Here is the input.
Amino acid sequence: MASFGKKILSAFVEVTDEEKPVTKPEETKQNSTVVDSGQTHQKRQTVNSTTNEKFKQYFDQLFKDANLPGPDYFEFTKMTEAMISIPDEKARYSAAFAGLNVQGLDKEKLLQTATEYLKILETDASNFDSTVDAALKEKVQGKQQEIEAKQKRIAEVSREITDLQNQIQVLQHEVKENEEKIESNSGGYKAASENMKQKIVYDIEKIKQHIA
Here is the structure.
């Protein structure tokens, strides 16, 4: 049923398992600047005309595939369409019915088969709605969840970056303190070492002088 429904939906909208290439925002902006309002209106009219024709072809094929044996409502509609040049609706309906009546179609069968095609249309619409729901879940809701997951990840990474920056600041402060301490201790050591050296040299001279 899923594949059948997908076939129904694909008759009207694009349903594909392949990912479309991502268009960069600047490319979209550049492309949009070259399309004026007149071109946009003309394009919309073309799309609507194409869509309407696609609908017509789809339902024609649907009824053709489900065509009941013998002349019935399906043939009647085709006959009335072929007589569209007849301006009067009553005359057109009567002429179409008269042409099929000689083939065995009566009013009761015409109404009965019209009801059957109505049921076929309702079943098809139900399948279409189910497929639309599935497509929305896959192509819209699924993508929205992916967006939310990526936004959540961005927030997490942002917090990690902030934490790392804070850690860097703490480390930089510790580096500065340690550097100052080392330089201070190094200076004190050198001064104390020089004093001790001078004292020893002094003591050596005095020992030579005072002790025989």
